[in-house]
Amino acid sequence: MKAINRRDFLKIFSGAAVASSSLLVACKNKEGDTKEVKTSDKSMIPRGKMTTRKNHNTGDEVSLLGFGMMRLPVIDGASGRENSSSEIDQEMVNKQVDYALEHGVNYFDTSPAYCQGRSESSTGIALKRHKRDTYYIATKLSNFSPESWKREESIKMFENSLKYLQTDYIDYLLLHGIGMGEDALDNFNKRYMDNGILDWLVEQKKKGRIRNLGFSYHGDVKIYDLLLKWHDEGKYHWDFVQIELNYLDWEFADEINPRNTDASYLYEELHKRNIPAVIMEPLLGGRLANIPTYIAKQLKHKRPEDSVASWAFRYAGTPEGVLTVLSGMTYMEHLKENVATYSPLEPVTPGENEFLLSVAQKIYNLKTIPCNECNYCMPCPYGINIPAIFSHFNKCINEGNMPNRGANDPEYAKHRRAYLIGYDRSVPKLRQANHCIGCKQCNEHCPQRINIPREMRRIDEFTEDIKRHPDKPQQA
Fold first, then answer.
1. Mean pLDDT highest for which of 103-112, 172-181, 290-299?
2. Beta bridge partners of 250
């Protein structure tokens, strides 16, 4: 496996920028005169200017921004993905869907696994209020548990998706989470091959109940290559593939975690086959919107009116062959900002790409844990709040508050206090890393393939060290 080289990388992004240049300046007012509209001006978000990409398989004109329905708002103001006890705020979901459709967003991505199983139903309620031909529904066969590997259970899951989404066909159906688990190939065979479910899905496509069939990839590149080999051989045809792509994962995914694959490789394998790419994690679960202050200042210096997050969205949307970029938008302000970024897209230039690669290098050098807070590892059977622990640890590194700067660091005591107090505030004591027993049940669910028990031990040992040594810095 060889990642795309720097020359080809620049060719991809410079070519995409030229191809999209006609989208950058035109916007008509009521009198029909054109005027320039800056996407960074969030108070003036034009309708009818959302950048779209055509799916050559079906002719679908898909909005470059896709609405990920995995973090729906709930009544108490939190996110449905993290809070299983609160009711989804259906009124707010309806408002967000209405706003999205009014501003050209027409791709809605959900799953039976999202929001503790409530996302499809909520999505269906919101979308049913609109004409079916004005939007595309993407959902997944999320048959992760051994019980759901049974043929009848997987079929039931698909049929339930149609029922909850209140539709008689799915526009984009994905095999969910291919490559996850310790034995990716064995896991894939049990989920889709031994029970004949993949062939059954192909039949459903022939019947018109599925319009596009693809898969979302996480982890083991061998299964990724195998599925694309089947595509080449004509064994199975993939209408699209969902991959993780952002400016950090472009070159550093496998260095951050050896079990991941660089986005440059994933993208190029699809691009050379003309398979449309759906992009997930453009912000790496929010990590690229919460980068260290000194790095954020560099981004703001180059484009003062743009947010840090908009850089990542522009990056993910620029390459040729990207069909849509998914964003899980809990809050209306996030939706509005992302709509503005893509109304229309201003592609990143080759120079900006070189700059973002240097930013990625700096972020990589921070050595944070590659958790994107997807919550697939939750709930922990022993009550550990895994994402919150990782989030606090990474936050301290990103903000320069890690108490590990050497024996002569005059601010060690300050950093130590901030770390320990922040830890107790962020994570209840009974849910902290010292309660992990190393059962490894979380590992098989992690798309980033993090060795979670090992990281829990590392964080616990580091925390206990600085508790015992208030005056002597320890290394993380």
1. 103-112
2. none
